[in-house]
Design a protein that fits this description.
alpha/beta, 14 helices, single chain, about 425 residues, 2 domains, 2-enoyl-CoA Hydratase, Chain A, domain 1, 6-stranded mixed beta sheet, 6-stranded parallel beta sheet
Amino acid sequence: MASVLMEFGRGLAKFEVPEGRFLGHVRPREATAVPDVGSAVRAAITNPIRGRPLVDLAAAADKALVLTVDYTRPSPRELLEPVLATLAEQSVETNVCIAGGRHRLMSDEEVLAHLGNDICSAYPIMQHDSFDAGAHAELGTTPRGTPIRVDRAIFDCDLVIAVGFIEPTYLAGFSGARKMLMPGMAWHEAIDANHYLITDPNCRVGVLDGNPISEDMEDFARELPLDFIVYSVVGPHDETTAVVAGNRDQAHRAGCRLSGNIFRVRGPMADIVISSAGGYPYDCDLVQGKKAIIPAHELVKPGGVIIIVAEAEEKWGAETTFVDWLRNYTPEEICKRVRDRAQFSLGAHGARILARPVVEHGAQVIALVGKDFVDDLSETFVQATADPQEAMSWAMQRVGDAASIVAVHQARRLMVEAEQ
C-alpha cells in the first residue's frame, strides 16, 4: 500500500491506496518566490504596466479607497503596506475596504488577523455587504442583462486601487482586477445574474476571452472607477512569485499569463480521483471546498468516483438554496433546474457543481469532511465520511480492486487537461 497525504483543513488526511494502482499526484508546477514582497511591490508601483506610477496618481488625489480580499484568500498585508505607505507620503486620506462579494462578513478578530494590527490601527476598515440595499447605486445593465448595481463607496473618493491575488478560477478564468468590483463590490442579485452564466459551457478555468462570465464582469466594471491595481501572482504554496501593477487590463493580463505557467498542467484519467481544494482556508466550508470538483471532473473516468477532501469546519458556508437543492433534488433535477434563470442563485450554482460529475460522467461523489459535518450531508446524494479509509473503501467497492487512482492537489486553482 502507498500512503497519499492530502491537504485537509489545517492538517493532512492520509489515504492508503494500492501501490500498483496509484498513478501519481497532479499538482501545480513549483515556482520561485520573490525574495522580498515589499521590494517587489515598490518596484511594480514605481514602474507600472501601462500606467502612471502610483506616487503620481496619489499626488493628484485627496481621498483613496483601497479594495482588497477577504479571509478566503491569503493575507494581503505585505502587498498593502507599500501601497498604503505611498498614499500616506502624499497625505491622501485612505480607507481600506474588504471586497468580499457575497461571502459572509468577517468578525473583528478575523479582520485583525487578516490585515494585521499596523493596518487596522492606522486606517478605517470597511466591509462590503452585498445585501445592504442602501449601500448600492444602480447604473444600468450589462449587454447580458446583469444589473450594474455596486457599492457607492467607490464613488466617494477620487482614487480607487485594487490589491489582491491572481490565480485561476473556474468561474471567471482568473481572479483579479474586474473581479474586485464584480462580484467584490456588487449587489447580491447582480452577482447571481452574472454567475448564472456558468451554465454556458464556455465558462472554463484559465480562460478569459470568450468566457461569458469574465466578459460580463468586464462589462460591469468598464465604466466604474478602478484606477490602479497591485496583484501578487501566487504560487502553489500561496507564495508571491511576481507582482504586477498598473493598468487594470494590461497589468492583469500580464499576471494571468504568469499564473497560467504555474497552474496549467496535465494529468492521467483515473477511476478514482482524490481531490483537495488545498486545506484551510480553501476548505473552510463546502462552498469553498467544492471547488476541488472542477479539475477532478476533467480526470475521472466514466462511472468512476471523485473523493473531495474538504474539512469544512464552518460546514455549508452558503445560503439555504445550496442546502435545500442538495437535500431535495436529484443531480439530474439540479442540472435541469439551474438552467432556469428564475430558479438560479449562487446556492443553486454550488449544487450544480457537485451534481455535474454524476450527470455527465455517471460518477459518484464522496466527501471527506470533518466529523461534525458528516450527518449534515446524510440526506444528500453526496456520501460523506470523516475517515479517509472509509472513503477509499466505498470508492473501491464501486469501481473494483483494479481501479486506477490519482491525487489532485491545490485543486481550486488547477487548469487540468487529461492526458490522452
